[in-house]
């Protein structure tokens, strides 16, 4: 690669043109940091009237690249296709005639460049990257036609990632929508089903219980245990699992988990649910979570009931504490879960399993597409694409 290397300040400028929103049409588009997703996608489109903007903001146009200078580690870097005003924590970058906006956007979204931006920020609680520091960013500058060619390729790669991300997001809400359509609000129970307390759904030989109080230091050859941080999206993330000593685990045999058990967080982020995978059969849990051993289709049904907004609200009403908030395990045991006919429970469980299979496929495809996009990105800016 024989491309010249330049600083951003040589080929672009930061336009901080102030605009008084009270003098603008209320329908003028507005972009705040909250309107830019991590990684750069613009979320929706608000007007200054809808956002109730009152203080001065920066103007921007379609050719600008919008760079979020507050917490730049979040990579809030977007390319709007319209004109409007943005938060003063967003810097509108205007490219010159030697630089393509798409090429610059993809270059700035690279993990290495995002890390550089974060390292150049000032401020402990609210780190910001100054305009002068941003203009000092160094980047390779291939011919303009080459920049545009690379930007088109990277745009397409990014589009594939976002397509699978949208598919995953749709799947995330689908099981809940099916539950709502079939059974409605489990707390109000408008269909008039009989109700069992949560403790009566679990295997009586393995009652609801919390886990290890002090698991101690991580033991490489010890017994794995599940923390709240390991519970995400109805799954247990096995890559971050820690291990406790066999002696400590043995003293908490009562909270040993088996494949298929539900684990629900009861402190901190109350209500997170995960299903124990076969690889963690025989593992344990911490005091911040509880084990629910519910057999067959009923486990899938109860998990979905506990994830409904109504049940989340029910648990929130019983969550107490200041520094660390949590729900008492006695209250959790009393959570009211309606009892639909068995065929309906089985029909729902089958539908939920199908949704989860699709979600796992979407997640896998999204990961693979992300890896491909990252590989193309690295090759693009090293002159190998």
What does this structure look like?
This protein has 385 residues and is an alpha+beta fold. Strand 7 and strand 8 form a beta hairpin. It is built from 10 helices and 24 strands. It has a 6-stranded mixed sheet, with helices on one face. 36% of the residues lie in helices and 19% in strands. The mean pLDDT is 93. The relative contact order is 0.12. Belongs to the type-I restriction system S methylase family. It comes from Klenkia sesuvii. This is Restriction endonuclease subunit S.
What are the defining features of this structure?
single chain; 385 residues; alpha+beta; Adenine-n6-DNA-methyltransferase TaqI, Chain A, domain 2; six-stranded mixed β-sheet; five-stranded mixed β-sheet; 10 helices; 36% helix; elongated; hydrolase activity; Restriction endonuclease subunit S; EC 3.1.21.-; hydrolase
Topology, pairings included?
Layout: E1 5-7, H1 8-11, E2 12-14, E3 18-19, E4 29-31, E5 46-47, E6 57-60, E7 65-68, E8 77-78, E9 84-86, E10 90-95, H2 101-108, H3 111-119, H4 131-135, E11 138-140, H5 144-183, E12 194-197, E13 209-210, E14 223-226, E15 231-232, E16 234-236, E17 242-244, H6 246-251, E18 262-265, E19 273-275, E20 284-285, E21 289-292, H7 296-307, H8 309-317, E22 319-320, E23 326-327, H9 329-333, E24 336-339, H10 342-381
Parallel strand pairs: 4-9, 14-20, 16-19
Antiparallel strand pairs: 1-11, 2-10, 3-6, 4-5, 6-9, 7-8, 7-10, 12-24, 13-21, 14-17, 15-16, 18-19, 18-21, 22-23
Helix pairs in contact: 2-5, 5-10, 7-10
Domain Type I restriction modification DNA specificity: 2-157
Enzyme class: hydrolase
EC number: 3.1.21.-
């Amino acid at each position: 690669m024989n491309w010249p290397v330049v600083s951003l300040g040589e080929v672009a400028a930061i336009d901080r043109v102030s605009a008084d929103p009270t003098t603008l049409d209320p329908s003028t588009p507005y972009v705040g940091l909250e309107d830019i997703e991590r990684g750069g996608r613009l979320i929706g489109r608000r007007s200054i009237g809808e956002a109730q903007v009152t203080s001065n903001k920066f103007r921007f146009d379609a050719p600008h690249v919008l760079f979020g200078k507050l917490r730049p580690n979040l990579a809030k870097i977007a390319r709007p296709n319209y004109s409007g005003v943005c938060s003063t924590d967003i810097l509108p970058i205007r490219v010159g005639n030697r630089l393509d906006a798409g090429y610059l956007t993809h270059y700035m979204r690279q993990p290495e460049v995002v890390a550089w931006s974060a390292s150049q920020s000032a401020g402990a609680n609210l780190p910001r990257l100054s305009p002068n520091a941003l203009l000092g960013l160094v980047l390779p500058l291939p011919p303009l036609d080459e920049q545009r060619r690379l930007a088109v390729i990277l745009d397409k790669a990014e589009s594939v990632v976002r397509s699978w991300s949208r598919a995953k997001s749709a799947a995330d809400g689908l099981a809940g929508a099916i539950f709502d359509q079939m059974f409605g609000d489990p707390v109000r129970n408008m269909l008039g089903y009989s109700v069992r307390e949560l403790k009566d759904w679990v295997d009586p030989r393995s009652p609801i219980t919390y886990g290890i109080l002090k698991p101690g230091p991580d033991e490489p050859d010890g017994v794995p245990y599940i923390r709240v941080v390991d519970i995400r999206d109805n799954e247990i993330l096995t890559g971050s699992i820690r291990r406790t000593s066999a002696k400590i685990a043995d003293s908490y045999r009562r909270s040993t988990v088996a494949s298929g058990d539900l684990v629900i967080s009861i402190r901190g982020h109350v209500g997170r649910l995960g299903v124990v995978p076969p690889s963690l059969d025989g593992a344990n849990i911490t005091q911040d979570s509880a084990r629910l051993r519910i057999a067959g289709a009923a486990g899938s049904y109860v998990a979905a009931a506990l994830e409904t907004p109504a049940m989340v609200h029910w648990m929130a009403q019983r969550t107490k504490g200041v520094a660390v908030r949590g729900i008492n395990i006695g209250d959790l045991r009393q959570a009211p879960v309606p009892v639909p006919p068995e065929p309906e429970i089985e029909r729902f469980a089958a539908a939920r399993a199908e949704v989860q299979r699709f979600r796992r496929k979407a997640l896998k495809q999204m990961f693979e597409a992300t890896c491909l996009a990252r590989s193309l990105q690295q090759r693009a800016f090293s002159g190998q694409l």
